[in-house]
Amino acid sequence: NMELTKNAIKTLYDSRGESSSAEHPILQVINVKPVQAQAGTRYRVILSDGTHFMQAMLSTQNNELAANNTLQRWSLIRLLESICNEVNGRRILIILGVEVVGESRTKIGDPKSIEGGNASPSASTTSAQPSNSSSVQPMDISSGSNGPITQSTGRTNSALESSLFPITGLNPYQNKWTIKARVTAKSPIKTWHNSKGEGKLFNVNLLDKSGEIKATAFKDQVDRLYNLFEEGKVYYISKARVTMARRQFSTLDNEYELVLEHQTEIELCSDEVSIPKVNYNFVRVADVEQREINSTIDLIGIVRDDNGVNEIIAKASGKPMKKRELVVVDDSEKEIRVTIWGNDAEEFDSSGNPVVAFRGLRVGDFGGRSLSLTMGGSVKTNLDIPETTKLKHWYASQSSDASYTTFSSQAIGSIGQQSNTRITLNQVKQDNLGSSEKPDYFSARATVVFMKSENPAYPGCPECKKKMVNDENGWRCEKCSKQYPEPTWRYVLTASVEDATAQLFVQLFDDQATTIVGISANEAMRLKDTDADAFSKAMNEGLFKTYNFKIRAKSETFNDTTRVKYSVVEATPISYVQEARDMVTTLDKLSI
Prior knowledge:
By secondary structure, the protein is α+β, with helices and mostly antiparallel strands. The protein has 11 helices and 31 strands.
């Protein structure tokens, strides 16, 4: 017999602030509706206090409650945190924190829409909002050819201070907000050229007490804003566009990012004390093995060895790229290889065994575990933080010939060696398997999604299996110098395989292709010549089936072009009994 909180909807509708500052109201859900957005499914909700109801939207982190029907029609909820925003002239409550506390069989009371004349006046006629509200006071700007040009006064703006918004509260459903944040990283200007045109961009990482977010400026806005931002300075920022984060280009723990546009307003702030300077989440070297492959981490350690700068050819662009491999240790008395790229590699100075803080390292499995700096990562030397002092004192106490353990004993698979441990296809690409002189072998579970059927097989010699030539006397093997009435057709089939992380084109030879297609190459070619529909059906029968693959990766050069070729060595259908046993064994190890 839980009672709804009286007048809660009107309070939420009028406040346009965070409900967490007041009593957490008990409300009833009177409707839930999934809607398709660019970033995926979102859920619209109608909330009632028995007297009024209003429109609301679940934040993405709460989607699971609606998806699994924990939160459904007639549910009773405790609203823990919310923000009321104006979207297209209507006030929408964004539900940031919610707890389902019960359910009812029907609607409680006879609620009326809060927008039916009972709402308070619009925001433009109300007084100033409290802290963390989404309203923003006008900024002092002048107009330029590319939009507003900020006036960097360097003072604390009291009008803006009264309406600041936390970075973690930003989402695409807000249209009025101001953040006060420190620039913790600023990228060089990057240019691109492709079939759609060309352009340039740069990005900054912005930090406040609540969290961090990436902001990017494109094309004309690069000229307007690049020199305005200084790393380490604090700024007021408003009127930027909030979009879903492109995780492949960002290492920050935020599902959103900002796009700086012509109307974006930026003002320098002199109050730097209240905003933190750094936001690292360091992982000790010994604990890296507990992190998932391809996850990103922060790490701080002593550079014990530097292998210098080398140049490689990037597979994606075909352009030369600088890399530097460092050996880093910390007081867990374990060492790990860290690879940095581009300008970071060229400009890095390892003299004096500096303490280096890495932001945004991707975990790989070369040598058991290795780390590589991501595109959005950063390298800072001898930062003025307690961790630096601690590591310097520790390393000074070590002898010059001290030895440190490596991850080699837990190696998942290294260059030129065969690996029986299953990895993801994205891991294959990230670790550049097959890019060295020796081939790499790896195991992966993947699904066949496409097979090229134009020329799936070649006419092979029944004895030596070499390709035969058809002349006026029949089929002739040049190697054996023998003539045959018919060849033995053998598959050389190109297929696309995928897992949840990436896609690869692989080559299937006769034994492996026969396993997947389900018929011999002789039968396939007979159907191809006599019954095109039956041939197409037979080839399609092999699609969308999952196998455990063992694959060979090896660089090959043709017409001065080098690429990695992936050849299937073994394709085994999934044994669900064995897979279940393997999972149980893995879980048993984790519970020890």
